[in-house]
């Protein structure tokens, strides 16, 4: 034991605290029985990934369902991959999508909670303290192997067709003495600290995954690195120490970490920690040439949640869509509770799919149409202004001049039993409403093939004389019918259907002619309402312009 103690002091001479110091510093959480403490621990290596948002949503739901805590921890031990602004992008992204944070980084530069720092690069002394304790117990040791040394070992293992890795007889420095280590350190040789694994691949580790059920795997026998040569921990070691001290009850993360669970369970037990519950979430997949693959930062623009912000998908649409992936019974609940906040849904991780769901753009669009259709015009305009200010300055300038007018534009057909679903995302809005704004309107006088320009002129000329901007929808349609004879159109649709050869068109055709003249389109929301919003001067000006065009 003295040899191990001397080794620990040799390797980490500046560490004077003991694990007990931190055990006293970070007291167990005082939470109701059954409350779950969850976390998301991303690395600041770029934009917020859709997978991180999805995992964060699940962690937030599980914490909420039990009166627990959800916190953020930044895993920035790999400084080579870190990008400037990475933390801000992650935290602001979570907030943008309504994922509230109880502890940790609640703002890009603000940490909150009693278990910090919540950034691994600031916790080096804590990790080194626990590592020193393992060395003192003979459960960890220094390794001076270079990359070249490790490559040679791997080549030998491959030649002998045995399992590769730093384990058993291949663990060169597993039994290094204090004197040997000191001599190498005096030479200036860098070293890492490895776990001296007591495991055997012949033994099995069995654990119950919250989604995938019972999993049995070989016990870890690899002497893996716990501290790198710069004294910074690997993910495995930092995860064990942090989730213990921070009181994490459920480690919910991507299922690419399942293969590491034997290492993690072994670490928790050797450190004397209670093993948390593991929940491994299947990734969101893409279909690529008939093959499923994990959604990729490199290949898929929608892998970055910033994509959804730029396109103008309401955050509630994205979350609503992710909920359909997360819970197999969510859509049935939503149909029964169309207006309820999704947070009132009773989420159960047992309802999650054990295999990855395919990202379905059509499904997302359908969900988003429904979400927007349920918004009142004031809400639509407010969201639209926020989006346009950031992503479409010209459109923002146009619609922000008169927000009351904008609300009238987006109120058409919105307060009906079955509101129209014309808008999928805010980037669609400019095209949707362009004919309401002279700055955006481009006339288009294309008529259906069976309607001649001559008859269009006759209908428009007659309607211009009969037009009354104060008519309600029923009166307006009666006026449309009244001008039909001017172009030889039937005044009644049934009458036209009974004898189409006798007429040049029907009331629907007459309204189409007016619609094209006023909006440049053959399909729009209620035309009577559109004309009321446009006003009499603009409506008549467009009818006159159409008459002039068709008369050429």
Give a structural overview.
The protein is mainly alpha-helical. It is built from 23 helices and 13 strands. Strands 5-6-9 form a 3-stranded antiparallel beta sheet. The protein has a two-stranded parallel ribbon with strand order 1-2. The N and C termini lie far apart (about 105 Å). The model has no long low-confidence stretch (mean pLDDT about 95).
Write the layout of secondary structure elements.
Layout: H1 2-11, H2 19-25, E1 37-40, H3 50-65, E2 69-72, H4 86-96, E3 104-107, E4 110-112, H5 124-136, E5 140-143, H6 147-160, H7 178-186, E6 192-195, E7 204-209, E8 213-218, E9 225-227, H8 235-245, E10 250-254, H9 261-270, E11 277-281, E12 285-288, E13 291-294, H10 305-311, H11 315-326, H12 330-336, H13 361-373, H14 377-391, H15 393-400, H16 403-411, H17 429-433, H18 453-466, H19 473-483, H20 493-498, H21 507-519, H22 527-534, H23 536-550
Parallel strand pairs: 1-2, 10-11
Antiparallel strand pairs: 3-4, 5-6, 6-9, 7-8, 12-13
Helix pairs in contact: 1-5, 8-9, 11-13, 14-15, 14-16, 18-21, 18-23, 21-23
